[in-house]
Every structure is written in C-alpha cells, then in structure tokens.
Amino acid sequence: MSPLQLNNTNLGAINVATGVAVPDYDRSRITPGIVHFGVGGFHRAHQAMYLDRLMQSGEALDWGIIGMGVMPGDVRMRDALASQDHLYTLSTKAADGNVTQRVIGSMIDYVFAPDDPAAAVAELADARIRIVSLTVTEGGYNINPATGEFDHGNGHIAHDRAELRDGRHGSLRTFFGLITAALQARRTAGTAPFTVMSCDNIEGNGELAERYFLAFAESVDPALAEWMRREVTFPNSMVDRITPETTDADRAEIAATGYTDAWPVVAEDFTQWVLEDRFVAGRPAFEQVDVEVVDDVVPYELMKLRLLNASHQGLCYFGHLAGHSMVHDVMADERFRRFLLAYMEREATPTLRPLPGVDLDAYRHRLIERFGNAAVKDTVPRLCAESSDRIPKWLLPVVRENLADGGDVTLSAAIVASWARYAEGVDEQGQTIRVVDRLASRLQENAARNHEDILAFLRERELFGDLADTPAFAEPYAAALRSLHEKGAEATLDEILAKVGQPAGMAF
C-alpha cells in the first residue's frame, strides 16, 4: 500500500494510521493576518509552531500565515508546500531519543513574489495583514559591512527605489521594495499600517530593521519615511531553536510512518521566544503559548547571541578542522565542552546585561547539553556557513566590549583564528573544505596569505576594523593561528585551556 499524501483531505487518515498529531481546528476558517518573508526550517519550527498551538486552542484563526519568497531558490518551498495544502510535519527530537511529530497547519498560502510583484504588494496591502515578519538571515538586511549603514548602492535596491519613485510595482526585487510599496499603498488609501517583526539573529533586530527600512523609504519619499516613523512599529525579539537543514533521511523517516511530506522540519525539543510588546495593529495572544512578551528584549538577545550563537562559531571551525561533520560528535569531546564553557563564562557573560531571575550558569550548561543532542543530527558545515555575516554580529561585539573594559579576549581571538585557518580551505586530514560565504573568494584569498603574514586574514577591515592593529587581540590571535598550523585544532585547544584554566562552573 502506497503512503498517504499529506494534504487537508488525508489529515484524519494520517492521524488514524500513524498516530501523528494533526490540526483538529477547521483550517477553512483561517484568514490571513501575517505575511512572512524567509520561510525555512526555523520559521516553520518556531513562529508557525507557536501559532499552530494557539489555533489548536481555538485562538488566532484570524492570524493565518502567508509565506512570501523573493529569492530564486524559494520556488522549491512554494512548490513543496503548495503540493500539500501548506501543511508540513514538525519532528521534535529530544536527546534521549524521544521523537514527537505534529502536522502544523498555521500556514495557509505561499506567494513567490517574482511571479507577480504587483500582486505580492497587493497581498501585503490587504488590511487583514497586521504583521509582516522576517527570517531573512543575518545577511539579508543589506548592510554595508564597512560602514554598518544601509547599502543604497546595491543594484537591486537601486532598481526598487527607481520603481517606487515612479509609482510602479511590477518588477520589484527585494523585500525592502515590496514591504515599502505596501506601506506606501496603505498610506495613500488611508489603511492602517502593519507591524514589521524581525525574527533574525541580530542584536536589536527590530531597531535595525526600523533603521534600514526608514533609510530606504527616505530615499524613495521623505514624507513616506516620516509617516512610517510615526505609524509603523518594529518590535525587537529573541528567538531560539536549533533547527538543522531537512535531509532526505528526514523525508524517509516520515514516509516510513505511512505518509509523504515533501519538506518536513526537524528541531530540538527546546524553544524560546522573547518578544517586545510593540504592535501597531494587534497581535496573537502569544503569551498563552509560553512566548515571553516583555518591555525590553535586549538583555535576552545578548544572552542568546553571545552565548549560544557565538559558541556555535566557537565549535564549528575547530570541529571541522579536527575532522568532525556532526555537532554532537564535536561535543562528545571533553576539550570542546571545556573550551565553550570557558568562553561563555570568562568572555561572553561579562558583556551581558542584568537578567533578574535567569540562572546564567544553568543556561550555559543547558547549551552544552543542547549542542550534544545526537538525535537532532545538526551538521558542522551548517554552522560554518556565512561566517562573514555571523562573526561580526555575534562574536566581535564581545571582543570590543572586553577590550574597552580591559578584559581578556584570548578565547574569542582563538575562535577568529580557527575561522582564518578554516578559510584556508583544507582540513587537517587534507580534505577540501567548501567555504560557503558571500565573501568566500575574498576570505580564501586572505587566508591563503596566513603563512607569509600571520595577520593577513585579520587585516580585512571591512570585517574586523582595527583589530589587526590592537595588540591585546592580535597577539593571542596570532598565537592561536600559529598553533593551529603547527599542532592542529585539538592540541591548540589543549594548550589554550591549560593557560586559561578550568571553567568555574564545570568539574572534570
């Protein structure tokens, strides 16, 4: 008997045949309330999951999600979701091997904007849409890395600016153009604006989104920018859930239960969302499903970005060089656990803001446990990708605050050195490393000079500013990179740990 196809018609049969939980709310009653840019694994394991929980309790049926894509690769997601009525399976995997599966039903449509940009703008301009949310990755915000400002010279941005100045929507290319066009249309029609809600791993993500959307709008029409400044809100948020890329093995695992899912999602059994309560046109009752709705997200953001995200970078390059492909294999090595805890305790935690009621020691140790979850099957190459967008946003702020306060940066410098060694493109076993990064060519060119100039990689001022000229950072960086060349990743970690000592919160 062939497996059932995941769709609305087969939901009941799938539940009976497999025991997998399915929506028992009436999906035909869901109306749109959110448009989301960047529909990938994380969004579907996080924001869409929280909305599904609300709908399951009979709430938020007027907050259905319409996915929207602008990149060529988004066609695959559009087609996969359309083939199954925008349903998909979320498999939650605990470290003890327990797997919980649920079909998520909160997404009701998916629009691939390049097919008809004007229609996409009309969708966004619909008064029922009250939130436009984003998971477009750290590199999606069109930041000029040299200045930190909005990059007005980007060709796609320049195209969209010209389109909007001429009152045209038919060939818009970017989410900046599409969202701004919709706000422009709402202003003209006298329709209330929507909230723009960033869910990306960037410090002050809402404030950054506001700054860059206003910069773009100002270049189109200063009066529009002024209206947005008064009327549109951009709440900050902190989001957390480890969600690896979906593999064919994940699809096969679903098929083995008795039904097919073109694009399921796998995630760990931990999830957290801290959200600033600043919405111009209302919001779902997220607090009913354990979202922490607060007045100030920044302390939570710093905790997550500088402990979890920066630690991911701390393990991935060293781990890759040592020959590991899976994150849980890296974490099975005691030296990596000690190194990450030492970084979190000694260098990251002193840069955090007060968080009353949060046990940071417990949080740090929980991160070590989460990284070691073998059931999730997270990969080291995934964590190594797009480092030029990650290291400057997650790790270098820790470096700069510690340098300003006279703190130690030995461990942070070693992480950057491990990135420089990784960017040379060959691991310690002689295997080629595929460097996935928007700046891959430049990074590898710089790294190729590491042996002749130990600070060559660090001299990329667009990424590192003046760190090559700062002895307190450059010296431990150079020492770590020399050791990586001469002794390898594991011996380098042993050497560093011998110098800095055992993490205070971990006994061996």
TrEMBL record:
Keywords: NAD, Oxidoreductase. It comes from the Bacteria. Its EC number is 1.1.1.17. InterPro entries: 6-PGluconate_DH-like_C_sf, 6PGD_dom2, Mannitol_DH, Mannitol_DH/Oxidoreductase, Mannitol_DH_C, Mannitol_DH_CS, Mannitol_DH_N, NAD(P)-bd_dom_sf. Residues 296-484 form the Mannitol dehydrogenase C-terminal domain. Residues 33-287 form the Mannitol dehydrogenase N-terminal domain. Gene3D superfamilies: N-(1-d-carboxylethyl)-l-norvaline Dehydrogenase, domain 2 (1.10.1040.10), NAD(P)-binding Rossmann-like Domain (3.40.50.720). It catalyses: D-mannitol 1-phosphate + NAD(+) = beta-D-fructose 6-phosphate + NADH + H(+). Pfam families: Mannitol_dh, Mannitol_dh_C. Belongs to the mannitol dehydrogenase family. This is Mannitol-1-phosphate 5-dehydrogenase. The lineage of its organism: Bacteria, Bacillati, Actinomycetota, Actinomycetes, Mycobacteriales.
